[in-house]
Each structure stands twice: as structure tokens, then as C-alpha cells.
Amino acid sequence: MEPPFPEKWGVFVLVSKNQSINPPTLLLTRMAAFIAVAVVLGYLLTAIPNVELVTATCFAAGYCLGPAAGAVVGAMAEFLFAGFHPMGSSFGLLLLAQMLGMVMTGFVGGRIAGFLTNPQSFASRRILLVAGAFLTLVFDLLTNLAFPLQAGFSISQTLVALAAGTAFAAIHVGSNCLIFAIVLPKILSQLKRMA
Question: What separation in angstroms does the CA of 108 have from each of 72, 90, 98, 180, 192?
């Protein structure tokens, strides 16, 4: 189950195989490109609440570069996007939860890559739809729990905060399901051809 790009070395694999922590320049360049695209696409849709392309971009990074590199792209992209957001930056536990959600997204994108031989097939679209829904749900749960915990809410206040976020989470999950099932397969096919 190899990613489509020839650089299959993730950060973790490099350390164990070559006893080196200096990834090749091409891999670093591709990682930086995915980080930049994720941040720019994130800011592009800032005015539309809970509709974003950062998750899909981090997933695509993992798909193309492998699970470890995808995880690093997810962490860095979310740190830059959420940590310096023009409508209010995240910090502390909330920022860590957001970064963890994108780390998982990039990692899962790399692990699923081998199962998506033809990203535009019906079977692959179903896998992408389920992955997009699951990853977005986990991200929303992490972030919706992080804020009340950081603010010192009681359990009952935390449950109220989670309930209040349900509509926004539904919009987020629904929009990412559409992005993962309709837009992402075409992008992954193009990226696979460029490899």
C-alpha cells in the first residue's frame, strides 16, 4: 500500500531505515506546498462557517506523501491556519485539539492511499465519503471538547456546549462529505497522474 508519489519516506520511516532525520529536499518541498495550499484554501472560505478545504488538503497530502509526512503537513497546516486565523486565533488546548485532528487526517490519508487504486471509482468515493465523515466527526468532537475543558466548564456545562455545537458540526460533516465524495476524487486522480 504505497502512496502514489515515489517519496514514500515519512519522517518516522526515515529515522528507522536510514538513521537520518533529514528528509530529501523534494519531499520537504512537496510538504511545504501542501501546507501552503491548505492554509490558503482555509482562508479562502473563512466567511462561510464550517465549510473548509483544510481537511481535504491534509488528507490529500497523506495520500500523496505517506502517513508520516501527511501527519506533519496536518500539524503544520492547522497550526498556521488556526493559530493565525484572521477571525480569531486558537491557543492552548483548543489549538492542540485542532492540530491533533489534522495530524490524524493526514495520517489516515496515507494509510488509505493503497485502497484507492482508482480514486474516481464508486467504491473509492464511498471510502472517501466515510473517511471524510469520520475524520470530521472526530475533529469536531476533539475541538468541541477542548474549549469547555480549557475554560474550566463543569460536566453539565460541557454537555450544553456540545449540544450547542451540534448544528455547526452537522454543517461541517455534511460539507466535508460532499467535498470528500465529489471534489477530492478528481483532485487525487490528478495528483496521481502527476506522480
Answer: 12, 24, 15, 13, 17
